[in-house]
Structure formats: C-alpha cells, structure tokens
Amino acid sequence: MAWVDARDIADVAVEALLGAGHAGKAYGLTGAEALTGEEIASLLSEATGRAVTCASLPPNQAKAHMIANGMHPDVAAAMVELASLAAKGYLAGIETTVSEVLGRPARRFRDFVAGNRHAYVG
Fold it and tell me: 3-state SS of 53-105?
C-alpha cells in the first residue's frame, strides 16, 4: 500500500479549499511509495532498533484483536476489508496528487517513522 501521511492530506485539503482552480475537482491521495508489510516492518525495525516482523492473521482473528484493543467494530471490519484489497494488489497504485497540488513530493513512510520514533519506542 502507498500509505499517505495525514499532514499531506491536510495540506492538500487546505490548498483545495483556499487555493484557486480546485472547484469541482476530486483528488485521490497516496503516499510517495507503495510498501509491503515486510518493508514496513523493516523500516520500523531500523527506526526502533527492535526486531519487527510482519505476520498475517486470519481476517476474523485480526478483527477480534483490533476490537479487543479498543477499536470500534465497524472500523475493525473496514480495516479487515482494506487489508483484503491490499493483499490483492488493489491499493498498490501511487497518485501524484500531492506533488501536483502542493509542488512538493508526498512525505515518505520512512520519514514519518523517523519523525514519530518516540511513539514506537515509548
């Protein structure tokens, strides 16, 4: 998946709302790169100094785990559905919207992890 940084979403939204030439347009947003679960685990391992692995769970088990950890059941169901689409490659595309609208590249997942390292190492 090409995870998009929430700050890029906000920046594009501000430009679309306040800038000229966006009336009536709809924008698809993605991050700068599509990453596999294994690549994400590697980046997290690198940033934290801890071994992080990617493990697949059966959909019902994944949903139950999310709910047990406080996620609303409807959101957990949506996350499981999203994961099923990702596994089929449907979410691997990369949009250039962030760079087109903002004139700069989308933030990379690696940079997000580095900037938020404190959240992962407690």
Answer: CCCCCCHHHHHHHHHHCCCCHHHHHHHHHHHHHHHCCCCCCCCCHHHHHHCCC
CA separation, residue 70 to residues 6, 62, 66, 77 (Å): 21, 13, 7, 13
pLDDT tens per residue, range 23-57:
999 999 999 999 999 999 999 999 999 999 999 89
The whole-model pTM stands at: 0.81
pLDDT-derived band at 89, boundaries 50, 70, 90: confident
How large is the C-alpha radius of gyration of the chain? 16
pLDDT confidence bin for 99, thresholds 50/70/90: very high
Assigned token pair, 7 = 């700050």
Whose tokens are 């590249």? That residue is 105
Q: Helix (H, G, I), strand (E, B), or coil: what is residue 34?
A: coil
| Pair of tokens at residue 105 | 């590249």
